[in-house]
Amino acid sequence: MRAGRWRRAVGTAAALLLASSVVGGCQVGPAPPAAADLRTGAPPWDAPRDAVSYIDKAGFERLPLDFSGPSPYTLNIAVTVDGKPVQVPAGIGVDKLRAEQAAVHTHATDGQVWVEAKTASERPTLAQFFTLWGLRYDANCLADACTALKVTVDGKPAPWDSPLLRNARVTVSAQH
Asked: Beta partners for 117?
């Protein structure tokens, strides 16, 4: 290619690149997260896709996926609605797209919940966990099940907003 044509080709390519960046916008990375809407429908319930919105709503700091606090621990949460078990999904509190997680999160569907807080004095709660899961949860309701909400920790009755304690076995049941 001759020098004149080469310069024209490079100039045209640069102009096209500039035009595509102006038309396409200059956003780098994932789109802004959607609002954290707490669901009230019947199970099954997946983990929210835009987890950072729920991390913020639950009052947690966004942490890198590889973060592990000074004294991480696990506990188990079992959920039933109308006497039927509800699977606790993997990925609660984890936003893989943005490579961020909450101090409270799940890796698998076995009900095991990981707590990897920045300090040992942090005490995340059951209400924060359900917010991360994207579910309406209060003293009366789990999603749309608003009759006979019961919480036990290690087999003993517990408040609806109990702290998530090391090695605890938490059960939450509700009826329609």
From this structure: none
Contact 153, 172 (CB under 8 A): no
Strand intervals (E) in the chain: 63-64, 73-81, 84-86, 94-95, 100-101, 104-106, 112-115, 147-153, 156-157, 169-175
pTM: 0.82
Span 118-143, pLDDT tens digits: 888 889 999 999 999 999 999 999 99
The region, left, alpha or beta by phi > 0 then psi within -120 to 50, assigned to residue 58 is alpha
Cβ atoms of 130 and 145 within 8 Å: the answer is: no
Query: 């913020």: which residue's tokens?
Result: 56
Give whole-number Cα distances, 2 to 7, 11, 14, 142, in Å: 9, 14, 18, 72
Which residue from 133, 79, 78, 80 is spatially nearest to 104, judged by alpha carbons? 133
